[in-house]
Amino acid sequence: MAVSTADAAPPAKPLADKVLVLGHRGASALRPEHTLASYGQAIEDGADFVEPDLVMTRDGALVARHENEISGTTDVAKHPEFVARRTTKTIDGQSVTGWFTEDFTLAEFKTLRARERLPELRPGNAKFDGQFAVPTFDEIIDFVAAESKTRGRVIGIYPEIKHSTWFKGIGLPMEDAVLATIRKHAYTAKTAPLFIQSFEIGNLKYLRGRLDELAPRVKLIQLLGEAKEQPYDTVANRQPLDYAQMMQPQGLADIAKYADAIGPNKLSVIPRTADGKLGAPTALVTDAHAAKLLVHPWTFRPENYFLPSDLRAPGTPATRNDVGAIAEIRAYLDAGIDGFFTDDPALGRKAVKR
Fold first, then answer.
1. How many CA atoms are closer than 13 Å to the CA of 45, on its beta-carbon side?
2. Cα–chain-centroid distance for residue 167?
């Protein structure tokens, strides 16, 4: 089923009072993702929120990695004491081989160091390999709270709960742990705005019923993948619902019953043409706003590899084009989005200011 929006739509206005610059995994174009250095760079560069992806260790600690398989983002393969833990698992229906956070205690996990996930596109980041530990959610909250106090501005936190069905199935449910961590820290319990996001549905509905006093500041975000894909909990429950249906007006109305915003792939907002150029906006933003849902698309990156063909600079796929990256973001701002995830918040801030 196609997204409701195959036809071009007129420009839309943001539903929010302020368009948010969301530091995707921190400032991951400039520092290895999900490190305090990356989050700090994002804050320095003007991000309104920083985004930690959360997974769990064997002993139930929430740690920041994009995936529970960590061979691409840590130096685990260089640790001889962990060689025997390399294994193959089926995560959300996909066979994955490597090392997994749930097979390590927090103490063991803390012996690892972060490495750049995309060294061929971000060789500058690769120079930091081995320098940074991987933070826990507690450490991130403490860090952001300290930065907020130092800078005299409130900085939001935008955690994503990863692979909820998987972790629940192995006896490590994350939702209550996330809420307990938020309530444990004064900064998140009383001050900071938070968005909790997931590609799944059931965990967001579960959280909606348990926010209580956090509800005014904690918003829930339904992430939306490729149109033909499904939230994994619907797959596990043998339900036919896919993201294309969820992006239809009725699907958006259903999301609005438990969530405050959607986080779509940016190509669902402005697709690319057949030759890779930036196309015309779809009606997704307009339809979401009609359902009173904010729209926070992902992800804006400055390297040629990620840019529309008409906004690239001369050079290699790794070549940065700041002007092109800002122009791409501006097109989405004109389409009425309410916030956006970017690997380079400094460029995002420039786009918003312009």
1. 28
2. 18
Q: Where are the beta strands (DSSP E) in the chain?
A: 20-23, 49-50, 53-56, 62-64, 87-91, 94-98, 156-157, 160-161, 194-198, 218-224, 261-264, 294-295, 339-342
Please report the pLDDT score of residue 217 as a whole number.
92
Chain position carrying tokens 């193959």: 88
Neighbours of 344 (CB within 10 A): 28
Angstrom distance (rounded) from CA 344 to CA 30: 7
Three-class DSSP category at 102: helix
Domains of the chain, with CATH numbers? 20-68+118-353 (3.20.20.190)
- CB of 160 within 8 A of CB of 223? yes
Which two tokens mark 296? Answer: 């926070």
What is the distance between the alpha carbons of residues 99 and 147, in angstroms, rounded to a whole number? 32
User: pLDDT digit string (tens) for 175-195?
Assistant: 999 999 999 999 999 999 999
- pLDDT above 80 (res 12): no
123, 129 in Cβ contact below 8 A? no
Cis peptide before 286 (omega within 30 of 0): no
Residues 6+ positions from 107 with CB-CB distance below 8 Å: none
Other beta carbons less than 10 A from residue 182's beta carbon: 22
**What pTM was computed for the model?**
0.94
Structure tokens at 228: 């033909």
